[in-house]
Design goal:
The chain has about 160 residues and is mainly alpha-helical. It has five helices and no strands. Helix 3 runs antiparallel to helix 4 and helix 4 packs antiparallel against helix 5.
Length: about 160
């Protein structure tokens, strides 16, 4: 990476940090997300961290895959397969983060005073189980995509 590329990369990181700090201290931002995504707030830190890592990773992975498969190799088939792998890995990150957040919420529910086995207990337990199963399904899909290789290009 050249000097100017490093400079603009650092400027981008500084801008990202400033925006994240601004959003952290800006209460209407949280209110907007609570309205749009009911029940999601800053207290759901595990989910937010997984979401940010998932979005950044998704963009970086696809940019890298584009440069390798389209620009250097000229292989659209390899790009599509690589894109599917990246998207599936992002789905694993997001569903795994949601599962961890559900476990955390479930543990807080179990530790609160006045806990009793009832319908709410079953609902929270079912959410945890469903998210763990969904993460497992995405892991199997990702594994299947890893063993698939693009066909060799035929040149005459």
């Amino acid at each position: 990476m050249g000097g100017w590329q490093w400079f603009w990369t650092l400027v981008g990181f500084v801008v990202l940090i400033v925006v994240l700090v601004f959003l952290y201290f800006y209460p209407p931002f949280e209110d907007l997300f609570v309205l749009v995504l009911n029940g999601v707030g800053y207290d759901n830190a595990i989910f937010w961290a997984a979401l940010i890592v998932g979005i950044v990773g998704f963009c970086a992975y696809h940019w890298h895959a584009y440069r390798v498969h389209i620009v250097r190799q000229g292989s659209v088939e390899a790009m599509v397969l690589s894109s599917l792998r990246g998207s599936t890995f992002t789905a694993i990150l997001l569903s795994g983060g949601a599962a961890l957040q559900a476990v955390q919420i479930f543990c807080v529910y179990l530790l609160q005073p006045g806990f009793e086995l009832g319908g709410e207990f079953g609902t929270r337990l079912a959410a945890v189980v469903a998210l763990v199963v969904l993460t497992g399904v995405f892991c199997v899909i990702f594994w299947l995509l890893k063993i698939i290789r693009p066909a060799a290009s035929v040149q005459s």
